[in-house]
């Protein structure tokens, strides 16, 4: 596994280059060929996004902002999003026929590679029996057993349909169990779009420059307290100010939704202790880190046992899923075993269970996390070295198949530090990489993901592309 020294954003590099001027997105009206934000002499001649542009123009009339999830809209990197046609392994193809090495992986689920043959075959078999029963099915038992035996703190699990639902359920459960109203979350951590979490929520919210969302009543967030990430003294102070009122502390054990930010060595332990001393629950939101940092998630990786854990993404193998789980004594509060209500029409549906089971079976094989760690380490080191050589201020880190880099000297310990990044430069880098056939998350404030399908050649090709792009941004 990665030593966390790779993580502390230790490669900080000095800048001396002036950014080249960036042309805003424009288009030639006759041919409707998109000009990218970066002026690129070596731009591959074949790279156009004509069909993408047409499709996205149509989409904007049909769906708000042309997308069904905001960060996909490329708002923070300029230009328009690429409309995808298909995915396989480590690659995506857009509707103009351009191929990309993909480091988004559908925002995390695609850890064994997109459209894996075994997953597809298993789904085809399951589908013969139907797509949704709305009644118990054996596949739920299988995935539940896999999750329980993998994730150290989970003795019972409830499947839902998204990470948002998982976090909503976990917070309701913590409040029900402790009979207390308040929660502490960390600035820049995202726990889905439920009302109580839309306070300093990083990611898409930060990307759009919205401090919070209109439509969230004050009553829904009044019990949400916030602290900077990696800041124990603020958490301590909040517990002193709100004695007997705090139900839970929830966090991303490694932040992905402000870009990649690792915890300081003692951070989790201190939180564990403070919550225990104060009768509050400690919740690891492992929607992103679960089965990604290690088979048992961040809690296995860091050796921490939270009271509750939320999961999503990977455990659905690319189908909609979420889950929350924890100690039996807490989980038995959930209806119908207990009084805390939570339900879902499609929860535990056989397709999501099948894709999850097949994905976890693959991840469990020996050497998977070592491989992810190796290629991700090579990737981030190569990118940072290339940036340094070109004179850019850059820092970054990784653990297993999760990574990130910021256009700032660092170190980055929290969202305020992350916001020091040169986001305009990130946008130029982003568009340049896209033209070179590399698809990163379209925001400085998102982590990247590798998969078992990425080859060492993909990594070298990405580094070579970064070398070119760093030279001219
Ligand atoms: C840590 C974390 N929690 C919760 C969520 C919400 O999950 P979903 O988008 O499936 O609702 C996300 C989504 O990216 C996430 O990264």
How would you summarize what this structure contains?
The protein has 473 residues and is α/β, with parallel strands linked by helices. Helices cover 35% and strands 14% of the residues. It has helices at 50-62, 117-128, 138-150, 163-178, 203-207, 218-221, 232-241, 267-277, 297-302, 328-331, 350-363, 368-389, 415-418, 423-435, 456-472, and strands at 26-27, 34-35, 84-88, 91-94, 99-102, 156-160, 182-186, 224-227, 246-251, 281-285, 308-312, 322-326, 395-399, 402-406, 438-439, 448-449.
Structure notes:
With 473 residues, the protein is α/β, with parallel strands linked by helices. The chain has a domain at 117-363: Type I PLP-dependent aspartate aminotransferase-like (Major domain) (Aspartate Aminotransferase, domain 2), CATH 3.40.640.10. The chain has 15 helices and 16 strands. It has helices at residues 50-62, 117-128, 138-150, 163-178, 203-207, 218-221, 232-241, 267-277, 297-302, 328-331, 350-363, 368-389, 415-418, 423-435, 456-472; strands at 26-27, 34-35, 84-88, 91-94, 99-102, 156-160, 182-186, 224-227, 246-251, 281-285, 308-312, 322-326, 395-399, 402-406, 438-439, 448-449. It has a seven-stranded mixed beta sheet with strand order 6-12-11-10-9-7-8, sandwiched between helices. A four-stranded mixed beta sheet has the order 3-4-5-15. A three-stranded antiparallel beta sheet has the order 13-14-16, covered by helices on one side. Helix 2 packs antiparallel against helix 11, helix 7 (232-241) packs parallel to helix 8 and helix 12 packs parallel to helix 15 (456-472). The two termini are 34 Å apart. The structure holds pyridoxal-5'-phosphate. Pyridoxal-5'-phosphate binds next to helix 4.
